[in-house]
Design a protein that fits this description.
The chain has 585 residues and is an alpha+beta fold. It has 2 domains: 255 residues, no CATH class; 234 residues, Gamma-glutamyltranspeptidase, small (S) subunit (Glutamine Phosphoribosylpyrophosphate, subunit 1, domain 1, 4-Layer Sandwich). The protein has 18 helices and 21 strands. Strands 1-20-19-15-14-9-8 form a 7-stranded antiparallel β-sheet. Strands 7-4-3-12-11-2-21 form a 7-stranded antiparallel β-sheet, covered by helices on one side. The protein has a 3-stranded mixed β-sheet with strand order 16-17-18. The longest helix is centred in the middle third of the chain and has 21 residues. The chain starts with 6 loop residues before the first helix and ends with a strand. The N terminus is likely disordered. Bound molecules: 6-diazenyl-5-OXO-L-norleucine. The site of 6-diazenyl-5-OXO-L-norleucine has 14 residues, from loops.
Length: 585
């Protein structure tokens, strides 16, 4: 084993690089340790994957909007400025914490996509192509943002949509991460013979036929017109107006399943979040149909039960990673066994009891990794492929202390690549988050358990974990991440460092992350974020972990609030670009 990489060095390198690196060149400037963009204020803060969208949010705050107003404007702006994951053609989860002293509870707005009315359990059993109109779930984003606005908004809806209209119509200045992303998808999609992939190609092709570079201007006039109709006519425009008519016709003409009735009947839902006590803090995560809150709860409780060895001055130690990885393994097994849309499957009440997590923790050995297959129990296992990721998370805290953690997604990067040329936005391929083949669970990580099988109107199980942490009723941390099933583990890595070990938020974001999801039985360690995990990988292998190096894990744009001074520290994760914007107190 090499000597452990000192965590102070990680932080110093991270902050130092952030100070030197011009916007959009963070990844290129600091490939080894990365960098974080940090801003401090007692005013309002937005941390997102897009500088332009963070600026839109901070302007809404400066205009007197609250955190939810800002979040709505950021989400719509990111549909323009970060189209690989920001969206109006997908869905997600928004956690909202009112300012301290408010009587309203923390709430989760569930705007997860739903299955079209035409599906059965086996509709996708033989589906091979993930980038197909059949893979599109009924989008929830516009209804979700409208529900948030109805409950918490203070500025007019139109005011919140208008910045996105302007960015789409007048153009957005392309950041390096966006240039990379567009160039990547254009390259991939150019190989596709499918007619339904052509509108994406046409919309995002550089006008001069060359690759995109930072500083270019991207215009999306068809999207601008769609957003203008949503600004003028409200959310019903998307679900029963001209936009809905276009979409229904598009799906009917292109082998899709979504009908006008599916769009018309889509509803966003307010749900009670999952609360877990950890290290003297209250951690609030999203409930089913996201698995995030419960899986996080089980992991945190198991860690408390077993005891988490303090790594001292090291970023991670074999013992700390081992305990967390074993908790991850067990929690993801239970996820597969029990979780799905609560409007369709009963989520046993027992799952939220401390005794449940205690029972799971009982089989954790101090020094030996468990073979995941040994935990399968009554889930039959077959030998056998795994998921691809893209989602985006942003965080907002306003001057009054109201907080929003929002994660939303198109599922894969650039979703299904499918775009209706009359509406100009990318559609999700979220149907892939259902269990595809009833009864077929394999060691590669495909799950076939009953709770998450397809049904008309049902929401597919998610791993999105927008998270708000409070102490004594005051918000102290807002976080979350993309990354498919690794999302919950990214959040766990951050919570442990910040809440249990008291590391600063920039330090916790800069540090390398790891993920174990039961199946495939791999302990994936992030190698592009310093040596903190590669240093301990030999010791972990010796304990029986199947250590699998990966490049990056997640992009956790987060905010910490110091409860004493009220100072907010906004941190943009360096891994996929991103920026913090503040509004003055
Ligand atoms: O909701 C989910 O769990 C997935 N559709 C999220 C996909 C994702 O995070 C991909 N991101 N990097």
């Amino acid at each position: 084993m090499h000597s452990s990489f000192n965590r102070r060095q990680v932080l110093q390198a991270a902050i130092g690089a952030a100070a030197l690196a011009p916007l959009g060149r963070l990844r290129a400037d600091a490939p080894e340790l990365g960098s974080v963009d940090v801003s401090r204020t007692t005013g309002g803060v937005v941390s997102s994957n897009s500088a332009a969208a963070s600026a839109v949010g901070s302007e809404v705050l400066a205009d007197g909007g609250d955190a939810v107003d800002a979040a709505i404007a950021v989400a719509l702006a990111m549909a323009v400025t970060w189209p690989e994951a920001g969206n109006i053609g997908g869905g997600g989860f928004m956690m909202v914490a009112p300012p301290a002293g408010s009587r309203s509870p923390i709430a989760c707005i569930d705007y997860r996509e739903t299955a079209p009315g035409a599906v059965t359990e086996t509709t996708l059993a033989n589906q091979v192509d993930r980038r197909h109109p059949r893979m599109v779930g009924v989008p929830g984003t516009v209804r979700g943002l409208a529900l948030a606005h109805q409950r918490y908004g203070t500025l007019p809806w139109k005011r919140l949509v208008q910045p996105a209209v302007a960015l789409a119509g007048q153009g957005v200045v392309v950041e390096a991460a966006l240039a990379d992303s567009i160039n990547g998808v254009l390259n991939a999609v150019s190989q596709s013979p499918r007619s339904w992939h052509k509108p994406l190609q046409q919309t995002f092709a550089h006008p001069q036929g060359r690759p995109w570079q930072a500083g270019d201007v991207l215009k999306q006039p068809v999207l601008a017109a769609t957003l203008q109709r949503i600004a003028d006519n409200g959310p019903d425009e998307f679900y029963q107006g001209q936009t809905a008519e276009h979409l229904a016709k598009f799906f009917a003409d292109n082998e899709g399943l979504i009908t006008a009735t599916d769009l018309q009947s889509y509803q966003a839902v307010v749900r009670s979040p999952i609360q877990t006590g950890f290290a003297g803090f209250d951690v609030w995560g999203p409930p089913p149909p996201s698995s995030g809150g419960l899986v996080l709860q089980w992991m945190l409780r198991m860690i408390e039960q077993v005891g988490l060895p303090d790594p001292g001055d090291a970023v991670w130690t074999p013992a700390s990673v081992h305990v967390m990885a074993e908790a991850m393994r067990r929690a993801y097994r239970e996820r597969a066994a029990h979780l799905g849309d609560p409007d369709f499957v009963e989520i046993p009440a027992e799952l939220t009891t401390p005794a449940f997590a205690t029972r799971l923790a009982a089989s954790i050995s101090r020094d030996q990794a468990t073979d995941s297959r040994a935990l399968a129990g009554d889930i039959p296992l077959s030998a056998g492929p795994a998921e691809s990721p893209q989602t985006t998370h942003f965080s907002v805290v306003d001057a009054a202390g109201m907080a929003v953690a929002n994660t939303y997604t198109l599922e894969a990067s650039w979703g299904s690549w499918v775009m209706d040329p009359a509406t100009g936005f990318v559609l999700n391929n979220e149907m892939g988050d259902f269990n595809w083949v009833p009864g077929y669970t394999d060691v590669a990580g495909r799950i076939g358990t009953a709770a998450n099988l397809m049904a008309p109107g049902k929401r597919m199980l998610s791993s999105q974990t927008p998270t708000i942490v409070q102490r004594d009723g005051r918000t102290v941390l807002v976080t979350g991440s993309p990354g498919g099933r690794s999302i919950i583990n990214t959040v766990l890595c951050i919570l442990v460092q910040r809440l249990r070990w008291g590391r600063s938020l920039p330090e916790a974001i800069a540090a390398p992350r790891f993920s174990q999801t039961w199946l495939p039985d791999q302990l994936r360690i992030e190698t592009a974020a310093g040596d903190g995990l590669t240093d301990v990988s030999a010791a972990l292998q010796a304990m029986g972990h199947a250590v699998t190096p990966i490049g990056f894990q997640g992009a956790a744009h987060s905010i910490a609030v110091d409860p004493g001074s009220g100072v907010r520290t906004g941190v943009a994760d360096w891994r996929r670009g991103g920026r913090v914007a503040v509004s003055l107190p």
